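Annex B. Sample input.
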Amino acid sequence: MPQEIYQAETIAAIATAIVPEQGSVGIVRLSGLDAIAIAKALFHAPGHQLWESHRILYGHVHSDQTIVDEALLLLMKSPRSYTREDVVEFHCHGGIMAVQQVLQLCLEQGARLAQPGEFTLRAFLNGRLDLTQAEGVADLVGAQSPQAAQTALMGIRGQLAGVIRQLRSQCLDVLAEVEARVDFADDLPPIDEDGVRSRLQSIHHKITQVLATAHRGELLRAGLKVAIIGQPNVGKSSLLNAWSKSDRAIVTNLPGTTRDVVESQLIVGGIPIQVLDTAGIRTAANEVEKIGIERSLTAAQSADLVLLTIDATIGWTEADQTLYEQIKSNPHIIVINKVDLFSHPPSPIDAASCFPSASECVSPTVYTAAAINHGIQELESAILAAVNAGNLTAANTDIAINQRQAAALTRAEIALTQVEQTIANGLPLDFWTIDLRAAIHALGEVTGEEITESMLDEIFSRFCIGK
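Annex B, continued. Sample output.
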């Protein structure tokens, strides 16, 4: 989108979540050339309050002679604002009516309703943020754990951008050196091929390190879906309640109490986890139970990790073996529950003797007594171990790239590999520059130095309106 359009138009939006009877303050935000003029037309500040930048004014928002709300007004003049344009915020009473009326008045004064992410887009177009910082803003708003919020904040502070800019600068230095030899071959000494190869390998290695954070970034943003499955009355609901420290699921001694999938949101090791307590899987006694069992199987198939729960007082049954065969190809953990009721609580060493059929599987196994909150810490450790097996651990824990950034870095990595192969094959310098430019372009896509209008539309369409 052309930058001059944003300079010419004033946009407005509600910048806070609006929920009936919740939230004491609601904010309406304006940005653009006419933001201050619109604010002066709508806001009356009694006394001799000064309309100065970064000063809060007290007064009333009015329409003709009617007072719409008692409010505060925050004025931030260009370029010292989020968008580097003139920005005005009306801090109104929370709820629905006050902020909606103030927004409508702003629109009647000539402002346009902002598109999703348009304030942050203007910040990017005006050089206030680069693209990684802008995406960090969206990540911070959507963070589901303290670790996700901290990683997003590091992105806003330019942690990722600094690394990528340095790598791109190093590629540009190599390209300049190669092109100088192409243009002035007779005036310069031959290029140091080993030195260039070494520098490219160093850049390549750093890109690989950053790419290794993609899995962690996906986990921090999307979280992990964990399904608890098993036969009826093995303690699945008790396990959920003990884990979540709440009575989220109904627990009785009657098999088949859980008829539908019950969800709970937890944080384990900084990772948001959606836990699904499912109906006991057996031959259904009625149509309602049959539907619940079908949903249990669906939840197990769609989960990132399955907890196959076994009753320690019964042992590994043929029905458990059947379930195991269904889920063994998916990431899973065997949870042997009710060990407090077992005459000799089993340990990992003698699991095979307690559960003969289990000796054939090499699955991670955890022993719990959900009724007395025993084994929950061990269960969480097993889950984190399963996640770490999927390359959660990254060299730089302050960085966690998203899918778009990973795709661009992968293109840069491929281009550098091709440059290295070109050098090894002894091809002319002109051929080196082709893939070097491709790597530089891909790195520029990460920070936004190389970006298209369609890519911007796609990125910022995922933002909320008002941010």
